[in-house]
Amino acid sequence: MAAPMKSHVPVEGLKVELVIGSYYQVLYGYELKESNNKVELDVSFTNNTHCGSVRSLAVSSNKLLASGSTDENIQLFDLKSRYEAGTLMKHSGTITDIEFYNEFMISCDDSGIICIWKVLGKSFECMKTLSGHKGSVSSLSVHPSGKILLSVGQDKTLRTWNLVTAKRAYTTNTPSMIDIVRWSPDGEKYILCYNGKIDICSMAKAASLHTIKLPGRGHSLDFVFSEIFAVGCENGLLVFVNVNSGVIIHEYKTASNRIKCVSAHELDDCKSLLALATNDGVVELLLISQNHGKVSTSLIAATKHDLRPICLQLIVNTYEESKEEKSTLVSTGCEKAVEKEADKELDTSMDDQNVAVTAVKSKVGKKRKKSHPEEDMSDHCMDKIKKMIGGKGKDSKSDADPVHNKHKKHMKPVDSVKITKQKFSNPKKQHAKHHDQHIAEESD
């Protein structure tokens, strides 16, 4: 399916690519192409390295793609050079969520384990594993400061982790299992999605500010602008919510009955791109515009494939950046020297740190019996957490980053992976192969 190109669609000079993880083990790449005054989504690559359905995707700032699967592995791909970059095999369950933060990657699985990975030159090292959830960890989110991690799970708990010490800071019981947790871009609020509802919670007040009833169960959530996020729902509606007012300000209806995944990229204060994929294989790229708090949507391009999508990542670059980019995964002698210096600076283990425990608490509906007393959330405690995440931003070399803390002991890696060289598969051959496989399965 192709959509007529609108003159106001800001695609000129941009390289736009969508990566989709599917139920049938395959990773699909779609690139936005323009020809004859039309824009289309063309298959740019396919990859079937996984031997289970692909459940989670994340892309780092230097275009390293990580995909998690039911095969319990994380596959790494260099999107610049189009090579497979390695496999991480630390997890012992389905990978449910992955997030990059600067040179770190955090992943979780359905066995209840959270792994903190460090990218060092041509290898990934598991610096720490966090355990505490009893059952699957369904979602995680790193605070914009990089000092706090929120995780939610099947055990009906919201857990706050201090990433400075790599220890659990606080546990809050929730009335039901939370499907998605996300920090707002400013770090002042966090979003909880569960049972067809959205809770917008204040970090400072440790309380729920707004509860929004969705038109159906929310499957995926992403911020479109700093104050507006979009939720893909069960009935095919894409719902836009203002994080400050807690009001649904716009709805976009698809022809499908379920939006499985959404991913957004903000172009400027007034325009963003948003990609979505539905349960029946429809993929759409939308232009989202806002003017004085009002949101409008325009379809840029759409396509459909036979593989059931589960997760999606939208990647936007300028063509100038794409031409200048070179793979950073092959270490030079100079880079190796930098790595050795970084190793010397790792002086103390995270576990030996004795930092005051702080907390973030949410109020989601009716509380069950608390595992921690209410006085733990005193003003004094909240002052500490504000102080801990205040000050320097994500790019600063603070104690939140163990590489820059000279008082920490060397942390031996629990697991690591070296870079391999395997070119991405031919998209046309792979598409035909898996299309035939899909037809055969349906006939059975």
From TrEMBL:
UniProt WD repeat ranges: 47-87, 130-171
Annotated Basic and acidic residues bias: 372-404
Name the keywords, alphabetized: Repeat, WD repeat
The record's section on InterPro entries has: PAK1-Kinase_Regulator, WD40/YVTN_repeat-like_dom_sf, WD40_repeat_CS, WD40_repeat_dom_sf, WD40_rpt
Residue stretches of biased makeup (Basic residues): 426-436
Record's superkingdom?
Eukaryota
Methyltransferase in keyword set: no
- Return the annotated region ranges for Disordered: 343-444
User: Which PANTHER family does the entry mention?
Assistant: P21-ACTIVATED PROTEIN KINASE-INTERACTING PROTEIN 1 (PTHR44675:SF1), PAK1 INTERACTING PROTEIN 1 (PTHR44675)
**Main role?**
Negatively regulates the PAK1 kinase. PAK1 is a member of the PAK kinase family, which has been shown to play a positive role in the regulation of signaling pathways involving MAPK8 and RELA. PAK1 exists as an inactive homodimer, which is activated by binding of small GTPases such as CDC42 to an N-terminal regulatory domain. PAK1IP1 also binds to the N-terminus of PAK1, and inhibits the specific activation of PAK1 by CDC42. May be involved in ribosomal large subunit assembly.
Q: What is this protein called?
A: PAK1IP1
Q: Which organism does this sequence originate in? A: Bugula neritina (Brown bryozoan)
